[in-house]
Design goal:
Blueprint: H1 2-44, H2 52-79, H3 82-96, H4 117-136, H5 138-147, H6 159-182, H7 185-212, H8 224-230, H9 234-259, H10 266-283, H11 292-295, H12 299-311, H13 317-341, H14 349-374, H15 379-388, H16 400-426, H17 431-450, H18 456-473, E1 477-483, E2 486-493, E3 500-505, E4 508-514, H19 532-540, E5 548-552, E6 568-573, H20 576-582, H21 590-594, E7 600-602, H22 605-608, E8 617-622, H23 637-646, E9 647-656, H24 664-675, E10 678-684, E11 699-705, H25 707-714, E12 722-724, H26 740-748, E13 752-754
Parallel strand pairs: 5-6, 5-8, 6-7, 8-9
Antiparallel strand pairs: 1-2, 2-3, 3-4, 9-11, 10-11, 12-13
Helix pairs in contact: 1-2, 1-4, 1-5, 1-6, 1-7, 1-10, 2-4, 2-5, 2-9, 2-14, 3-4, 3-7, 6-10, 9-10, 9-13, 9-14, 9-15, 10-13, 12-13, 16-17, 17-18
Length: 756
């Protein structure tokens, strides 16, 4: 009896140790896997201007590599003996050590132009590809090893997937609040390398436990019925892919929305990915706290709120982002919940993860690679929101024949409608007439498909009313262009001063221009006479009437109207699409009307400014905003060293610091103090009573330089203030930057402004 009790206690201890080792190995693996994503993406940000597309393209690479890891895990678990699997995988992990600590591969610099996605994927592949591939195979491989042990839960090892996602989630949450603010990038890469070595040791331990606790192999006598029950149909595989595609695509759509309106920083990129992983933790738990059946009741409302948040509430940035995140989380939770419900038995585990990963990769490829080429605007987010509706179980399921018949009926009218729209648009037929003709035909097909032809005339009347009314409130762009760096529009609007063109990047209006020949040389928006940019140039001319200026950020080219004979201005712009727009008088004529040299250089400022001669510039202007995104790599100590090296001894730097959600001024003033420069802050918000007031925009900025130069340039002008930066903001560097302090400072006004 004692021996039996002792045996049971020993078995229990062995069982606990087995689960503990496998849980630890999967948890640590997931922690490393998802900490490397923001870490390495941040390393490459300075190469590509901080665009949100850097993160989206990085996600495509990581999802693709994850898929390769799952395929590798599936193949070796299927064709190799357990001992050989362990030896092979430890060998692959060992090769990954050759790439540590993580660093950007030497010799990789982006070329000119906007097609950077494939180049970026190549950079990730040669720099971090093998270690990430090796770790990505751990989750399915370790679960498969566990399923072959004699543990009581071996037949359903999916609870370990919840542990995997918990590790991923913890890693992502700790990165912005612990690793990013407290560790420099070099320290982060060293810590990651040490964690990788520890993981290898734990994997070896898990392999030993798997062999020692291996389930006795019994050759089963399987009946034809049993085999058929275990088979996975192509329909089931497509269903898994579809359910994985929707959350993956929406994750990148929400990420772009956030990054284009706040900042391209890991802190913001992590939020959608963390929510994505949280849904897996919830649905793969042994007892999920919510079921797809309960969530399905919210679906119609969730889709509606998501559409309103993404396309109507754009001006209310934080509210729009918050609602978009909530809706995205519910949709992802539902889709992943249905995936968890449809998971196969343990023997099919690795194949299940492969098809789920295929859906994730397709979602990433669609958003990051295909959509920017196919769509001139961010239509993919709208399309996938609508597509998400098809993930909900139908209360009255219809046969495939009925669905095909309805789709064919709609296509008979929708396809000709699309052709008519394209032809009329090519011949510049009035857009309103085009919308009525092509939209009416598509609407008729939709009514026929629904079997509600009687409502067509009511629906058509509503269409005509919308076509007549909407242009009064919404002005269709005369140009929409999309590049790696975002979406831009040029809109034509009427005013009391005649036609006005507006330049919109993302959701932010950056400039206006009157089209009247008598008025079109007047800079507007932030650049209007008396606004911050005008005041900065005036300050620079106090001692140097003829200026040599490096202007970072071209926009519509309005600053060209401050050029004077004897000046030498060079403009730096990372996005070739913006250069094409600014140089085309059809859209804006500032450059053709005002600029003397029209010297525009394409590329990231950190790289292109290197070509300037040392101590050659009287002034450097940093105005490189995409939508409301902050290019963090242009606001670091190393960037300042570059600017100062290109300035003349009495040169000045002006930073545009306007932002709707962040205290950029504190970041900039910290840099000035760190460099030993004097700085002054200026703000323009009230334009009441001024000419063209409706086309001027609130603006803030900071000018800095040697103390005597700044004091002389701003003396007697009360608009220039001394600025005490927020204690929440520290000096940023290429090795350290955290936007949490800037967000906190903006929300609680921790900075102080006073007369110098």
């Amino acid at each position: 009896m004692v021996d039996l009790a002792t045996s049971r206690a020993g078995n229990k201890r062995s069982s606990i140790a087995l689960v503990s080792v496998f849980t630890l190995s999967i948890f640590l693996s997931a922690t490393l896997l998802f900490s490397v994503q923001p870490l390495f993406a941040k390393l490459v940000l300075p190469l590509l201007g901080g665009s949100s597309s850097v993160w989206n393209t990085a996600m495509v690479f990581f999802q693709g590599t994850l898929l390769l890891g799952y395929i590798y895990a599936h193949l070796i678990s299927k064709y190799l003996d357990l001992r050989l699997q362990i030896i092979t995988h430890v060998g692959v992990l060992a090769v990954g050590l050759l790439f540590l600590p993580l660093a950007i591969a030497s010799g990789w610099t982006p070329g000119e132009g906007g097609a950077h996605s494939l180049w970026l994927i190549g950079l990730f592949a040669v720099s971090v590809g093998l270690p990430f591939f090796a770790i990505s195979a751990n989750a399915p491989l370790l679960q498969r090893w566990f399923s072959r042990t004699d543990h009581k839960d071996a037949d359903d090892p999916y609870f370990l997937y919840a542990a995997s996602n918990a590790g991923s989630l913890l890693s992502l949450c700790l990165y912005p609040v612990v690793f990013e603010p407290m560790m420099r990038l070099r320290t982060q890469t060293d810590v990651w390398a040490q964690g990788y070595a520890i993981l290898m040791a734990v994997i070896v331990m898990a392999g030993v436990f798997a062999v020692l606790n291996r389930k006795a192999e019994v050759a089963p006598v399987q009946t034809a019925t049993k085999v058929a029950a275990q088979a996975i149909s192509n329909k089931q595989r497509l269903f898994w892919i579809f359910l994985a595609f929707i959350p993956s695509s929406l994750m990148l759509g929400v990420t772009s929305h956030m990054a284009n309106n706040i900042a391209s920083a890991p802190f913001l990129w992590i939020i959608p990915l963390a929510l994505f992983l949280l849904t897996f933790v919830i649905v793969f738990a042994k007892s999920p706290i919510v079921t797809p059946a309960k969530l399905s009741k919210l679906f119609p409302w969730v889709i509606l709120v998501a559409l309103i948040a993404g396309f109507v509430l754009k001006l209310f940035v934080l509210l729009s982002i918050a609602l978009s995140l909530v809706c995205y989380f519910i949709i992802a939770l539902y889709c992943h919940g249905r995936l968890a419900e449809a998971r196969p038995e343990a023997a099919r585990l690795t194949e299940f993860y492969i098809w789920m990963s295929v859906g994730g990769v397709l979602g990433g490829v669609f958003n990051a690679l295909l959509a920017p080429v196919i769509f001139p605007n961010v239509y993919e987010y709208l399309l996938v929101l609508i597509l998400a509706q098809f993930a909900v179980k139908s209360k009255n399921p219809q046969s495939s024949e009925v669905i095909k018949a309805k789709a064919l009926t709609l296509a008979k009218f929708a396809v000709p409608a699309a052709i008519i729209f394209a032809v009329l648009n090519a011949f510049n037929v009035d857009m309103r007439l085009n919308a009525v003709l092509s939209g009416g035909l598509a609407l008729f097909g939709l009514n026929r498909m629904r079997g509600q032809g009687k409502t067509f005339f009511i629906d058509f009347a509503i269409l005509i009313a919308l076509v007549a009314i909407l242009p009064r409130f919404y002005h269709a762009p005369i140009l929409t262009d999309r590049s790696f760096f975002g979406v831009m529009h040029v809109k034509e609007v009427p005013s009391e001063f005649g036609t006005v063109h507006s330049f919109v990047h993302g959701d932010t209006v950056h400039n206006y221009q009157f089209r009247d020949p008598e008025l079109r040389k007047i800079p507007l928006a932030y650049y209007a006479p008396g606004n911050t940019f005008d005041m900065a140039v005036q300050a620079a001319r106090v001692k140097t009437p003829d200026l040599t200026i490096a202007m970072v950020g071209l926009g519509a080219g309005a600053m060209a109207c401050y050029e004077k004979p004897g000046d030498s201005w060079t403009y730096y712009e990372i996005d070739p699409a913006i250069v094409d727009m600014a140089k085309n008088p059809k859209y804006f004529s500032f450059m053709s009307d005002c600029s003397y040299e029209n010297d525009v250089r394409i590329g990231d400022a950190r790289m292109t400014l290197e070509a300037l001669a040392p101590m050659s510039q009287d002034m450097i202007v940093i105005d490189a905003f995409s939508s409301d995104t902050i290019p963090t790599h242009l606001l670091t100590r190393e960037a300042m060293d570059l600017y100062i090296s290109r300035l003349k001894p009495d040169g000045v730097i002006f930073f545009h610091t306007s932002n709707r959600v962040m205290d950029v001024a504190s970041v900039v003033v910290r840099l000035a103090d760190d460099a030993g420069f004097e700085s002054r802050y200026i703000s323009r918000r009230n334009f009441d009573g001024k000419l063209y007031a409706e086309f001027q925009m609130p603006s803030t900025g900071v000018i800095m330089g040697p103390k005597d130069r700044i004091e002389a340039a701003t003396a007697g002008i009360s608009d220039w203030k001394a600025f005490q930066p927020s204690p929440s903001v520290k000096v940023w560097s290429d090795d350290y930057s955290s936007i949490i302090g800037a967000l906190k400072s903006f929300a609680f006004d921790e900075y102080k402004i006073s007369n110098p």
